């Protein structure tokens, strides 16, 4: 179940990524919400939305990017590490 706080941060990220290629999360309240997630949960959260996530500045900033490979992988149910993608 997604919390209301995480849902709010998710909405902000989605809005920003519709306008810009990256979204920087630095606000303390938003950071607390994302820091409650385990690293694997944060990766899955980003992957499920077609985003890439990077922690910066010793964990004081989290960046999200649109990942052009993620939607294709999500639709096909494959991951690049599982050998599901053909070699280019």
Describe the structure.
The protein is of the alpha+beta class. It is 48% helix and 18% strand. It has helices at residues 4-19, 28-35, 39-48, 69-76; strands at 22-25, 51-56, 61-66. The chain has a 3-stranded antiparallel beta sheet with strand order 1-3-2. A hairpin with a 4-residue loop joins β2 and β3 (61-66). The chain is globular and about 25 Å long. Mean pLDDT is 80; it is low at 70-74 and 78-88.
Kindly give the count of domains: 1
Helix-strand category: alpha+beta
Residues in β-strands, percent: 15-25%
**In which order are the strands of the major sheet placed?**
1-3-2
Question: Quaternary arrangement of the chains shown?
Answer: single chain
Globally, the shape reads globular
Low-confidence stretches: 70-74, 78-88
Please tally the β strands and state the result. 3
- Portion in helices: 40-55%
Please tell me how large the radius of gyration is.
14 Å
Main beta-sheet annotation: 3 strands, antiparallel
Gap between N and C termini, in Å?
A: 38 Å
Mean pLDDT: 80
Question: What is the chain-wise order of helices and strands?
Answer: HEHHEEH
The total count of helices amounts to: 4
Features:
single chain, 4 helices, disordered C terminus, 48% helix, alpha+beta, three-stranded antiparallel β-sheet, 88 residues
Topology overview:
Layout: H1 4-19, E1 22-25, H2 28-35, H3 39-48, E2 51-56, E3 61-66, H4 69-76
Antiparallel strand pairs: 1-3, 2-3
Q: Can you summarize this structure?
A:
The chain is of the alpha+beta class and 88 residues long. The chain contains 4 helices and 3 strands.
């Amino acid at each position: 179940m997604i919390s209301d706080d995480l849902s709010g941060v998710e909405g902000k990220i989605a809005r920003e990524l519709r306008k810009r290629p990256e979204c920087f999360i630095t606000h303390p309240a938003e950071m607390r919400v994302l820091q409650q997630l385990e690293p694997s949960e944060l990766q899955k959260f980003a992957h499920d939305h077609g985003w890439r996530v990077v922690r910066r500045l010793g964990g004081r900033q989290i960046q999200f990017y649109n990942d052009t490979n993620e939607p294709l992988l999500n639709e096909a149910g494959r991951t690049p590490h599982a050998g599901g993608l053909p070699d280019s």
